[in-house]
Amino acid sequence: MKDLSAKANSVVTRCAEALCTTVEELRQQFEVETPDSSMGDYARNFVEFCCFQILSFSNLNIDQFSDRSFTCLTFDMMLAWQSPSAKKEEEEEKNERSECLAKDKREMPSEIASKLDDEESSLFYSDLMPMLVDVESSVGVDAFARLAPAVPLVADVVTANFQFETLTTSTGGRLPFPLYDKFVKELEKSVNDLKKQKMPSLNLAKGEIVLHVDGSGATQRVVRHIGSTSWPGRLTLTNYALYFETSGAIKYDKPIKFDLSTNAKQQVKAGSTGPWGALLFDKAIIFESSDMGEPLILEFPELTASARRDYWLALIKEVVTVHKFISRFGLKGREEKEAIARSVVGVVRLHATRESFQIFPPCPQTLLTFSLSEDLLPGGDYVLEELANSIRRGRNHNDAHLCSSARLLHILGVTDCQEFTVNEKEAICVGKSQVRELTPLETTVQQSTQEAKKTKNARASVEVLRAEGITENGKILKEIVSPPIMNIVPWFQELLAWKNPLTTSTVFIISLLVTYM
After folding, report:
1. Which pairing describes strands 281-289 and 222-226: parallel, antiparallel, or unpaired?
2. Residues 312-350: tens digit of each pLDDT
3. What pLDDT sits at residue 491?
């Protein structure tokens, strides 16, 4: 299609081939199903339609994430979405080249910059080309937030913006393909690790999934504090409970279970520990529940910061919060399993993000759906309400272009729920593709995210003003204190030189009296 950009034409053609149809037939279907498609950006709407069509008829399995062609296709979909029309693509390329050239010229010596102004100098033989290719072939936040949630293992509609921000911390807010490819590969590894984590000693219930294990021989220590005693052991988190096994001489003792799914009043918070009751080390988690006599205190010793503790705190809070969410909105049966599966998939994404950078994310709660909505997002209650409505509507497949997380986990082999079984040729319905329109959940999340950005900017402005105020106050204090100090120094030097013996003797006697009286 001549109205589409080169990347959009490539994506549309590949979608048509995968659907065993032609581009023209897809276009006719698009115009029939979306009669108001002429409104707004026709090219982008058509690209959206094709992307949602191919994703809604993809039988997702773990092998697909190891297939580089699938990763390339989903990445190209985002590139095509942000530059769908040929005219817009030309304008963007021209603007990006001009901006990059101007920026580089400012940073270059004058003699090199003057050579670039020469008509005979070719841009393709300059050092700017690698930078220009990187800019043109990277994805922005809007494209990622719009299309990535269509593959629920890659992103969630609630956390998509924060997921993108975390992934692009080192790339200036742009997502290049190598980083996206690494993230998808780590997702595959995280799913495989989730399937391999079997804990026979815990006697897990049906549907209970091991999310994280720490304190074993291959990892750092976890210490439980009971009064003045400390007990090292192994800590295991599932989607329903927390298990602690005290280390014995040969093997671990019988596991102690702390249920996170009850309706009891529960609280998880950061805490400090230390010898003889002194709160010196801020590396602990305190779990309190109304059906427990004493709180559970777990310490995560490490030499530097408390990143490991913060990571565990985020995971435990997510499990507690999702069960509060289920109880609050009365979700049962398939709806309850969908909510729990959504939190499990969020933990998988968090693990993959950590492994992609080989460090703990600075704020892991922002990557977990229920913790983010409960604690961090402005208007999070409205997000949770729309999320509950989305899960209820999703049972009838009338919601947005989102695949069921529970069905996804079943297909990937993480859970074994027969009610989520699909036939080999059955399409995974991701809901009605709402081209050009946002679902109620997406609209609510978008509003909350914008409010969060405004709050963040306001806090940054306050910090700048506070720092400026401290600097100004320091200067004023220096001007006030400097004259007396400058006068005292010569007098003190005369005192030590015994230029006035009477004064020196008097000061010496007064000092002795003050010291020993």
Report:
1. unpaired
2. 999 999 999 999 999 999 998 888 999 999 999 999 999
3. 75
**Quick one: CA dihedral 404, 409, 415, 418, positive or negative?**
positive
Q: Which residues pair with 203 in a beta bridge?
A: none
CB 82, CB 139: distance < 8 Å: yes
**Entry pTM:** 0.78
Whole-angstrom distance, CA of residue 85 vs CA of residue 5? 5
Structure tokens at 46: 């058509």
Q: Which residues pair with 299 in a beta bridge?
A: 223, 284
How far, in Å, CA of 400 to CA of 382, rounded? 17
Whether the Cβ atoms of residue 445 and residue 400 lie closer than 8 Å to each other: no
Rounded to the nearest 10 degrees, what angle do helices 23-33 and 6-18 cross at? 90
Q: What does the pLDDT read at residue 375?
A: 86
Per residue in 68-105, pLDDT (tens digit) is 888 899 999 999 998 888 765 555 555 555 555 454 44
Strand 256-259 versus strand 281-289 pairing type: unpaired
Distance between CA atoms of residues 289 and 258, nearest Å: 9
Question: Is 365 in contact with 372 (CB distance < 8 Å)?
Answer: yes
Give the pLDDT score at 90: 58
- As to burial, measured by CB atoms within 10 angstroms (0-12 exposed, 13-18 middle, 19+ buried), residue 342 is buried
